[in-house]
Amino acid sequence: MSDDMDARWAQALAEARAAPAMQTLEAALAVDEAAGARIFPPAADRFRAFALTPLDQVRVVILGQDPYHGEGQAHGLSFSVRPGVAVPRSLANIYAEMETDLGVPRARHGDLEHWARQGVLLLNAVLSVPKGQANGHRGRGWEAFTDAAIRAVDAQPQPVVFILWGAYAQAKAALVHPPHLVIASPHPSPLSARKGFLGSRPFSRANAFLVEHGRTPIDWALPDLTESETI
């Protein structure tokens, strides 16, 4: 797997990365891929969230469950897809809520790297998935590693907003303590978005908290990508 995560993350997660369960998982994934299994995102992108969002710069955490399991979608950032890939329905609902909450026009692409580079840690609880098998790698060792990442953010002195959508993400609230803020609501998937996600205003609430605590708010508006970036 790629080791291009930020140095501060590498230090904070060294013990979790060296744990026997993680060593076994990484070896098993390498064997599966060598045998021709399609696993998403590619190994080089599995720690991309930790490369784009340094630990000491995290302002918001958006926690997902596991990567998209369709060809060419996942690229290491929760809820995000590669440029040129159709916007998934959950992300479309996120855009709809952002438009209602902030008046931000809906982006024509699904690449959330603009958020990640501002300090939004786009983290999945499970960092890999077999092609076409949602939750296919749940329970294989990723959860202890990503729980360690949540604890590392929780240990930071600067207040951070944790946005937890759906029951799976909300179960991680026990890992978060003051002065950090938890914003919880139903998941933005088409099955639950109208049960409390739409109208929850997570973006304005997150920014209000950041400003209140002397931190720079997030520019949630996603810039248009150039033609070369969308191909």
UniProtKB/TrEMBL annotation:
Record domain Uracil-DNA glycosylase-like: where: 51-210
Gene Ontology biological process terms from the UniProt entry: base-excision repair, AP site formation via deaminated base removal
PROSITE patterns: U_DNA_GLYCOSYLASE
Compartment(s) where it occurs, according to its Swiss-Prot or TrEMBL record: Cytoplasm
This protein's UniProt keywords: Cytoplasm, DNA damage, DNA repair, Glycosidase, Hydrolase
Catalytic activity: Hydrolyzes single-stranded DNA or mismatched double-stranded DNA and polynucleotides, releasing free uracil
Record-annotated active site: 66 (proton acceptor)
Cellular component aspect of the GO annotation: cytoplasm
Any matching Pfam family: UDG
UniProt EC number: 3.2.2.27
Principal location: cytoplasm
GO molecular function: uracil DNA N-glycosylase activity
Membrane spanning stretches: none
InterPro entries for this protein: UDG_fam1, Ura-DNA_Glyclase_AS, Uracil-DNA_glycosylase-like, Uracil-DNA_glycosylase-like_sf
SMART domains reported for this sequence: UDG, UreE_C
Role summary: Excises uracil residues from the DNA which can arise as a result of misincorporation of dUMP residues by DNA polymerase or due to deamination of cytosine.
Protein family per UniProt: Belongs to the uracil-DNA glycosylase (UDG) superfamily. UNG family.
Official protein name in the record: Uracil-DNA glycosylase
Taxonomic source organism: Sphingomonas ginsenosidivorax
Lineage: Bacteria, Pseudomonadati, Pseudomonadota, Alphaproteobacteria, Sphingomonadales
Gene name of the record: ung
